[in-house]
Amino acid sequence: MASNPRFNKTRNSTTRKPAKKASSRSSKPGRRSTPKTRKGKTGRRFSIFGLLLKVVIVLLALLICWTIYLNARVTTGFKGKLFAEPARVFARPLELYQGLTMAMGDLEQELRRLGYRKVINPVRSGEYSITGQTMEMVTRQFTHWDGVNPSQHLMLDFNHDGIERVVNNHGDPAVLARLQPLQIGSIYPGQKEDRILIQISDVPDVFVKGLISVEDRNYYHHFGISPTGILRALWANVSSGHLAQGGSTLTQQLVKNYFLSSERSLWRKGNEALMAMLLEWHYSKDQILEAYMNEVYLAQDGARAIHGFGLGAQEFFGAPLRELRLHQMALLIGMIKGPAVYNPMTHPERALERRNLVLDIMADQGVVTADQAGWAKKQPLDIRSGRQRIRYPAFLDMVRRQLQSLYRPEDLTSEGLKIYTSLDPRIQSRAEEVFIDQLQQLEKNYKLDNDFLQGALVITQPESGEVLAMVGGRRVRFDGYNRALDSRRPVGSLLKPVVYLTALENGYTLATPIDDNTLVVSGKDGSEWQPTNFDRRSHGQPLLLQALSHSYNQATARLGMQVGLGKFMANLHDLGFEREVDAYPATLLGAQGMSPLEVANLYGTFAANGFRTPVKSIRAVTTSDDSVLETFDFSFKQVVDPVDMELLQFALQDVMRDGTGKYAYRRLDPELNLAGKTGTTNDQRDSWFAGYTSDYLAVVWIGNDDNKMTPLTGSTGALRIWTEVMNAIKPQAYLSREPAGIEWQWVNAKDGHRTSKNCPDAIQIPFREGTAPQAKDGCAGQVTKPVQNWFKRWFGGKKN
């Protein structure tokens, strides 16, 4: 049968359509793919893997670079000196010996300042007891600039004069014993961090173990981080729903405090962990632990941050770390968790609770026994009371100024220098108490507003020129304007002794009559200067001795003009005043402004019998390891002839016996041989007194900061404070050996003529040999009141 072409065409087209459908279905999922398609999918997988690999490699490279950077920070930061250590300033060491004039109460106060503990039976360093008039103590060993001072077990017997006997615990006499000097201040770096560096070898073993048991029990077994600690902290935080616990090791804490900030972030924690492992890789456990003990922050004292257990022990207990007892150690360890929260000064209840918890942990970990922990928990906080950041700001100001001329600022704030000074804490404390009390009393007596009066006080040791105490204002703890150094006020009659010394050096005697009548001095510009006496009266022809003793202005000005302003100013410089002097007649009466310290420098030459000994505050400077850098030995130069000085001494002592300074003997022992001079300026704006005994020179200024008038003279103001200060510090009588070339003669006090012992108005005074008056007054030997030959009794002169 022949085929139908239409039929065939249709069939063929029909059979081709399914083929197209099959082709179309083959591209759908689930169908077998072609080799070309499988190759494309594999390539895509490799490209993603390659991309991820590249990212990992880049991240690993970055991590390595970052680790190298952190490693450099760790190794660089721990090279050399880890911490900036402030310079420390110390007072004088108290020397104890038989015959020392010091009451038992004063010595006990000194011991308390040094952090000594009063116990029944002293056996450890830093302990003492008192039984009747006997004090027993165990002194601390310390290194001073002049050597090591070993610990001594001493017995001291007291009487009403002071220390009667000093023996050791074997009954053998102790020639000399020393107490370590009190630290009176520091010179901090810019960030105000203060610390006392310690070595781990000096830290009690129980303290080290207690610290580790509380802060990081696995310290000696981990590699910087503690995985179990991290997991434990993570579980606690997840369970509580907030950041309740940290997993930081001691090493991580050190890294955070030393290198990083306290920011709470995963980035900081990651850096902390990595740096902790690097730190452990490079350094031993003991090195890291020692650094931690010196870095740890414990408290804030004003602007000063207290770091490290060495300073913490001194700050809170007044003792070195090695002397602390168990309950004290536990308190320091407990403060780490929250220095502000557990500060025993501000939150004693919290601090006590935290301390007891630390003791429980130490007992649980076997660091101490349960009985030891129980005993410690019964103890009070036992912190030192009266913590003060700056005890003596005026004196420290003087120390800083002297140091700044010798050392760079960075040396003073970072190298741990030790500055040994002359300050006497006992005298300083007494001076402050008297100064504040007397200013208040003067304001009350004269009905002045509170705080109307200001003032300053300087006390020195005449032979050495060392400053023993300094008050820069009535706010004795205020570290601000220091009037003792910076307040340059007219000194009034304090310069009169220079005028009279100049006269004695130029042919005058103490018996020379001088003119006290009205004086008018005309200036080149036509102006006139007319000084007047304080009582507005003229006194005729007083003897030179009387004119100084009673502080006559007219007589002094005329005398100064006669001997010459040039000679007066030259003498002023020779005696110790270093600045330029105004060459005006008014300078003779004290128009020149001076600071109390400058006056002390000037009068120190009088007190040292004509030897100029510049005032100073520093004895020595050492490095942190006690190597001596510099010592400041005594320097002196004789600038006044011994005979002339002896005559002036007599005159200045007469000021105190019969002149403007005689109030002092109302309060002080009549056997003291005081010397000094009052000073009062125009309108009584300034009240001055400068005076001395054998062992102390003191200068007092009182006035108003705004230069307002006051009702005070030198006698009614500054002298009162001076007298009470001397009464408080118990000076010795002024003694001196009379130089060769002195003769004594009886003269008439009214005209200076030679007379006899029993004549009216007879006084006996010293003269340079060959200068006694020859004229006689014609006395027939009439008997008068007995004459007190006080000066010769002290100075060993022979009666004529």
Structure overview:
Residues 17-41 have a biased composition (Basic residues). By secondary structure, the chain is α+β, with helices and mostly antiparallel strands. Helices cover 39% and strands 16% of the residues. The protein has 24 helices and 30 strands. The chain has a five-stranded mixed sheet. Strands 3-4-5-8-9 form a five-stranded mixed sheet, covered by helices on one side. The protein has a five-stranded antiparallel sheet with strand order 17-16-28-27-26, with helices on both faces. Helix 4 (205-215) runs parallel beside helix 10 (326-335) and helix 4 (205-215) crosses helix 11 (348-364).
Task: Characterize this entry briefly.
Its main location: membrane. With 800 residues, this protein is of the alpha+beta class.
Which spans have pLDDT < 50 for at least 5 consecutive residues? 1-31, 780-788, 794-800
Number of strands: 30
Task: From the alpha carbons, calculate the radius of gyration and give it in angstroms.
Answer: 42 Å
CATH class assignment of the domain at 226-297 and 308-377: Mainly Alpha
- In the CATH hierarchy, the architecture of the domain at 226-297 and 308-377 is Orthogonal Bundle
CATH-assigned homologous superfamily of the domain at 226-297 and 308-377: Biosynthetic peptidoglycan transglycosylase-like
Task: Kindly estimate the percentage of residues that lie in beta strands according to DSSP.
Answer: 15-25%
Q: In what order do the strands lie side by side in the largest sheet?
A: 11-1-15-23-24
Largest sheet: 5 strands, mixed
Overall geometric form: elongated
Query: Per CATH, what is the topology of the domain at 226-297 and 308-377?
Result: Penicillin binding protein transpeptidase fold
Structural class: alpha+beta
Q: What's the tally of helices?
A: 24
Helix content: 25-40%
Distance between the termini: 188 Å
